[in-house]
Amino acid sequence: MHENAKKNRGLVVGITGASGSAYGVKLVQTLLDLGFTVHLVISNAGWRVLKEELGWETTDREAALRKHLRETAGNWVYHPIADIGASIASGSFLAMGMIIMPCSMGTLSSIANGASDNLMTRAADVMMKEGRPLVLVPRETPLHAIHLENMLKLARLGVRLIPAMPAFYFGPKTIDDLVAFLVGKVLDNLNIEHALFKRWGDHDEQPGE
């Protein structure tokens, strides 16, 4: 098992209805490959985007997850978004942190204004009140003043904001490369080791050459 997973208490991952569901799926698959337990929450709009963007059959949601989240070293637990009494809704549930990827502006606004009206926003509120890492990956363009004000409010509270902005310095060849880069940046912010992209300064030369 990956060294990070040995001390694992589980990570919470949220997927909303913002475009970019491939990011969330890649994140979950990577965490599972590394041996983590993933507590997964998907909004109703998030399920629609999984269907529209990735072609998932979402009539039976748990069956869809079993089909697309292949067997790995880790485990996943699915929590319906309406289950406000789920384990992750309580601060007594020990979790390493939470990532919402992608994060819609609606979800971001709810978190910024303390509107814990579903399991995803409640779990995010728990991370903030317990002082645990919360990483949001907003995906929207252009941004208006309310979006920016909500992000500034969260940043001042210690929430990590990693916009879904691709990079090109590492020489991506495919869309999968761009998705993996952003997932890697998220994992970097949680100090989780990975090999999802080539870092700036990495090269194939041997020492002394």
From TrEMBL:
Identification of the protein by name: Flavin prenyltransferase UbiX
InterPro entries: Flavin_trans-like (IPR036551), Flavoprotein (IPR003382), UbiX-like (IPR004507)
EC number in record: 2.5.1.129
GO molecular function: carboxy-lyase activity; flavin prenyltransferase activity
Residues that hold dimethylallyl phosphate according to the record: Y169, K185
Known function: Flavin prenyltransferase that catalyzes the synthesis of the prenylated FMN cofactor (prenyl-FMN) for 4-hydroxy-3-polyprenylbenzoic acid decarboxylase UbiD. The prenyltransferase is metal-independent and links a dimethylallyl moiety from dimethylallyl monophosphate (DMAP) to the flavin N5 and C6 atoms of FMN.
Flavoprotein among keywords: yes
NCBIfam families xrefs: PRK06029.1, ubiX_pad
Family in the record: Belongs to the UbiX/PAD1 family.
